[in-house]
Amino acid sequence: MKQSYVSIGLVNPKSPTNVGGIMRAAGCYSVDEVFYTGKRYPLAASNGTAQYNTDTKGAGQQIPLTGVESLVDSCADDVKIVCVDLVEGATPLPEFEHPEKAIYLFGPEDGTISQQVINRADAVVYVPTVGCMNLAASVNVLLYDRLSKSSQTIACDELIRSSRDTNNRVKVKRQVRPLSVG
Fold this sequence. Notes:
28% of the residues lie in helices and 16% in strands. It is built from six helices and seven strands, in the order βαβααββββαβαα. Helix 1 (16-28) packs parallel to helix 5 (135-148).
């Protein structure tokens, strides 16, 4: 039985390109579900295929992307709410310990998470950058941080072979070099 759970919540996203990039990240990092609020994303997505240009691995076909009225109210009771935004008083991501079950909420590309949602969060974190990052980039950084701090990390050549692009067959040439003494 899977004990961990991770989902992404997007507050009124506007860009299908960003949502596509987030879906690709969700596939790379084994996210269970992605939720969003608002009307901007579905309206923008109905006018083209930009999302599918960035979700080149088709993660959106395996991971649910669901519109909801409230990201906070859509969580199970045992899921911790973690807001990720440049908010005063937030914890820097390198210092944050990820909960086993979490929904990570991200504000819109041109705004922030509301004070009411911040007040209901179990934790508020930020990525300590100079300036703000792109929404999809922020999701990637957060998910990588979660993975890097997890005991679930899988690191092997089989993972590389199953994850890389079909045009990539490069290998590290192993050489034994003498140690210089001096």
